[in-house]
Design a protein that fits this description.
This protein has 218 residues and is an alpha+beta fold. 27% of the residues lie in helices and 27% in strands. The chain has a single domain, classed as Alpha-Beta Complex (Peptide Deformylase), CATH 3.90.45.10. The chain contains 6 helices and 6 strands, in the order ααββααβββαβα. The structure holds zinc ion. Zinc ion (ZN) binds next to α5.
């Protein structure tokens, strides 16, 4: 922790409520936050279209887009409700080498919200790929996930919805539903593969690198 960051943290603590805003946050909480270890509550169906839940869904979308992520769960913005949002755009997939995108089974997923999702495994074969999490910032590790799953639940309009996902989208939904159960990928990762995603930058800059934390897209 640098002097500047220490000073900024000190200023933050001087402001009311330690500078913290009330959830749903506009930032992503980090590993260590008790919210990430809490089993989230089921959303009463009749409340989905209500102001409180709609506000959480709107904030989830804002943060998902601003962080440039493919998935985001309500606990990650400080709310222990069983809601997640996902999307994988053609632009996001194009930023990955084509052979890698193919190997990982990536495909375009339109913006989708699931409320009270229930997972059913369609293909019990597990696939191992490197996975990261916005709540475990600047780290990644190998994680085994089922190849195909079906997710059933409700959409943001409170209508029932069900969808089968295969490959990378199946990984996204398993990761997000784990969040709703208070689990992180670090619980099931191959521990020897855990790595700092900018470890080579650290060497190239002789240690003078600021590990990115703020959203890259802002
Ligand atoms: Zn995550």
């Amino acid at each position: 922790m640098g002097v500047l960051r220490k000073t900024l943290n000190w200023y933050a603590r001087l402001s009311p409520k330690h500078g913290a805003s009330a959830p749903p946050f506009s930032h992503v909480v980090q590993i260590g936050d008790p919210t990430l270890r809490t089993v989230s509550h089921t959303v009463p169906i009749e409340k989905i279209k209500g102001e409180v839940v709609q506000n959480v869904i709107k904030k989830l979308q804002d943060v998902l887009f601003r962080y440039g992520s493919v998935g985001m769960s309500a606990p990650q913005i400080g709310i222990n409700l069983r809601i997640f949002a996902m999307r994988h755009t053609a632009e996001q997939i194009a930023s990955v080498q084509p052979e890698v995108a193919k190997m990982k089974g990536m495909s375009v997923v339109p913006y989708t919200v699931f409320v009270n999702p229930v997972l059913k495994v369609i293909d019990y074969q597990k696939v191992i790929h490197t996975e990261g999490c916005e709540s475990v910032r600047s780290f990644a590790a190998d994680v085994a996930r089922y190849r195909a799953v079906e997710v059933s639940g409700w959409n943001a309009e409170g209508e029932p919805q069900s969808q089968v996902y295969t490959g990378w989208p199946a990984r996204i939904v398993q990761h997000e539903i784990d969040h709703l159960d208070g689990k992180l990928y670090t619980d099931i990762m191959d521990r020897k593969t855990l790595h700092c995603t900018c470890w080579d930058e650290v060497n190239l800059s002789k240690g003078k690198v600021a590990i990115p934390f703020a959203p890259e897209s802002v």
